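In response to the reviewer comment on reproducibility (Comment 2.3), we provide here a single inverse folding case reported in full, input and output, so that an independent group could reproduce the run without further information from us. The structure tokens appear first.
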């Protein structure tokens, strides 16, 4: 045999830990396909898309972990997820300006622009392990300027103030570790 089998093997797949992560959106947004090239669909026949992403934080134990997003087209949740990610990377208003009206992010011209806009952008995502322990599910996204520690402080301060009968105190977030710029309108022509 060319290789010796190990009963307890590790192949390098990392699952992100529960909590907030610095995430880099990748290139190669495309339909989610099986090994034979067949496009995956949900129970209602909506095609599924894969939006590549990974944890990109050299300080984190799960740096490099795959946190790709699987999104079904023609669904309200799929549309909302793309809109929320665009908002988190500071690009939502530009899409509204350039594609006015009740449009789908999965229309050919729009998804083509989503593909080039997402690549290399950073945001924060919060993950939670599924109840069965098999999956790490993204449950929130936020801009890089969001400091998850401020959320913890606000929650703690709010609980303490509520116990004292006062109003919660808001905290300021730390500056983001990655800088990000939005594209100019010149690249939309």
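Designed residues, in position order:
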């Amino acid at each position: 045999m060319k290789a010796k089998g190990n009963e307890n093997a590790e192949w390098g797949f990392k699952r992100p830990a529960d909590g907030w992560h610095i995430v880099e959106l990748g290139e190669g947004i495309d339909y989610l396909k099986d090994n034979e090239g067949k496009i995956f669909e949900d129970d209602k026949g909506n095609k599924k898309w894969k939006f590549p992403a990974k944890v990109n934080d050299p300080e984190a134990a799960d740096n490099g972990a795959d946190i790709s997003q699987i999104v079904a087209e023609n669904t309200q949740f799929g549309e909302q997820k793309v809109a929320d990610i665009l908002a988190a990377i500071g690009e939502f208003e530009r899409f509204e300006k350039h594609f006015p009206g009740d449009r789908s992010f999965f229309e050919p011209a729009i998804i083509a622009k989503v593909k080039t806009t997402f690549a290399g952008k950073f945001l924060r995502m919060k993950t939670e392990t599924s109840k069965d322990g098999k999956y790490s599910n993204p449950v929130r996204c936020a801009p890089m300027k969001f400091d998850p520690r401020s959320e913890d402080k606000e929650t703690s301060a709010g609980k303490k103030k509520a116990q004292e009968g006062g109003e919660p105190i808001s905290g300021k977030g730390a500056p983001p570790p990655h800088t990000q710029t939005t594209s100019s309108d010149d690249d939309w022509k």
